[in-house]
Amino acid sequence: MKKMIRFSRFFVPAVIISVLLIAAGVVSLCTQKINLGIDFKPGLIEEVRIAPTAITVSYNGVANIEIQTNAQGVYLVVSGAGSENRTENFRYIDYSTVGEMVSAMSKVDGITATAVAPESTTAEGFFGSSSQSTILSAENFRLFYNDENTAVVSVEEVRELFENDNEYSVKQSGDVSANTYQIRAGDDGTDPEISKKIQDEIYSRFVRKYGTEKVAVIKTDFVGSQFSNSLASKAIILVIGTMFLIWLYATIRFKWDFALAAIIALLHDSLIIISFISWTQMEFTTTTIAAILTIIGYSINATVVIFDRVRENIRTIKTEKFVDILNISLSDTLSRSLITTITTMLAAVSLFLFTTGSMKDFALALMVGLCSGLYSSIFISGAFTALTRKNWKPSDEEKKTQTQKVETTNIFAE
Predict the structure, then answer these.
(1) Reported pTM
(2) Lowest-pLDDT range of 40-44, 330-334, 369-373
(3) Residue 293: CB atoms within 10 Å
(4) What is the per-residue pLDDT for 70?
(5) Contact 162, 205 (CB under 8 A)
(6) pLDDT (0 to 100) of residue 20
């Protein structure tokens, strides 16, 4: 005998809950809209960090020397006519303090290194500013560092720098103690020099407040209006195209109502994610599109497994009600659906806890989508197929092959 949990008792409440959530999302979209990232909104995003200078480096010579930094140390790449092409390595493991690093770098011909931080300061995690050219010259190149004793600058204080300009928006980036901020400014496409003007304006405002020796531009992203519009339209086409191909596959493999139920479940998951993004004002980027497509993949996989079991049980279960077959199929696949979701959720939780920026947003969207996908595969697609096959009766051929009776468990039983 086949055991059955009556999931169908919760089809109507589940649909009502989903409608309310999506309606709340629509209201949020109308009032708050989506926090479009730089990929979909023309303009510039600049990431600025307030940190002290550790060392200044200048060069007076005929060769070209480029300064580079990474997690292991500082490197001087020497090239050009009349010089030997080589790389001078100054690893933190070899030069553990600012004083040792300055002494070693000053031994390179033409290089003048000066300690700004106390010479006993640990040499670790130096970084430059993208506002400076990495090709050394007589002008000082600043190497910044993370000083644990630096006072935390609140995001409200940074917003005061732009309080009279509505075109700028400011938000915290990463850990509060890092003193890193994202400044965004829009572009209406009328000024071809807008990118440089915005960068100069942002940098000058920080410098006036905190000084050149404490302002480092970490990175700058700029997207023109034409490119952002093209990217947005392509993203919409991509999602719609994915939905169509899934519908075509499900129609060929199953029946039309199964295919439509699968698409409704996928639309439900997509709308829930978009609503969540609107509620939280999470930045909507191409990474978010990747999360939505990943969720669609997991959701349709769970739905196909359930419908496969439904198709099999139609031929073997002895019953006059399609809802019984549906409940049995959901019961049969419940453990598989739960295990798949939980194991994937563990990976998403790890990403959320141990990453930052767009990857953290990706993980959060994925976690919400996995829960929505499991829910929609059982209750949303199930509710639709139960509705379309309300008057279903087994055919004579199906009756001949039906051999197993139905046994209702006490869980959710009527």
Answers:
(1) 0.61
(2) 40-44
(3) 14
(4) 92
(5) yes
(6) 93
Distance CA 145, CA 119 (A): 13
Give 70: exposed, middle or buried? Use CB within 10 Å, 0-12, 13-18, 19+.
exposed
**How many beta carbons lie within 10 A of that of residue 26, not counting itself?**
14
Rounded to an integer, what distance in angstroms lies between the CA atom of residue 179 and that of residue 169?
16
Amino acid at residue number 224:
G
Asked whether the predicted pLDDT for residue 409 surpasses 80, the reply is no
Residue reference for tokens 């049995």: 328
Q: Which residues have CB under 8 Å from 130's CB, separation 6+?
A: 217, 218, 219, 220
Residue entry with tokens 């952002």: 228
305 burial type by CB count under 10 A (0-12 exposed, 13-18 middle, 19+ buried): middle
> Position of tokens 């194991």?
343
Torsion of CA 201, 203, 207, 213, to 10 degrees: -160
- Tell me the C-alpha to C-alpha distance, in Å, between residue 287 and each of 37, 169, 284, 313, 408: 10, 21, 8, 39, 44
Q: What are phi and psi of 79, to 5 degrees?
A: -155, 175
CB 46 within 8 A of CB 220: yes
| pLDDT, mean of residues 293-307 | 84
| pLDDT score of 168 more than 60 | yes
List the end-to-end C-alpha distance of the chain, in Å, as a whole number. 18
- Of the candidates 316, 288, 297, 322, the residue with the CA atom closest to the CA atom of residue 405: 316
What does the alpha-carbon distance between residue 68 and residue 130 come to, in Å, rounded to a whole number? Answer: 11
Residue type, 165: D
**DSSP string across 252-311:** HHS-HHHHHHHHHHHHHHHHHHHHHHHHHT--B-HHHHHHHHHHHHHHHHHHHHHHHHHH
In Å, how far from its chain's centre is CA 234?
Answer: 18
Given a contact cutoff of 8 angstroms between Cβ atoms, the answer to whether 231 and 40 are in contact is: yes
Q: What is the mean pLDDT of residues 276-283?
A: 85
From residue 167, how far is each of 159, 179, 184, 381, 405 by CA, in Å? 12, 22, 8, 44, 68
DSSP code, position 78: E
* Average pLDDT along the chain: 83
What is the DSSP secondary-structure string of 161-203?
GGTT-TTEEEEE-S-GGG-EEEEEEE--SS-TTHHHHHHHHHH
Tokens (6 digits) for 334: 């419940």
Cβ pair 111, 76 in contact under 8 A: yes
The pLDDT, as a whole number, for residue 411 is: 45
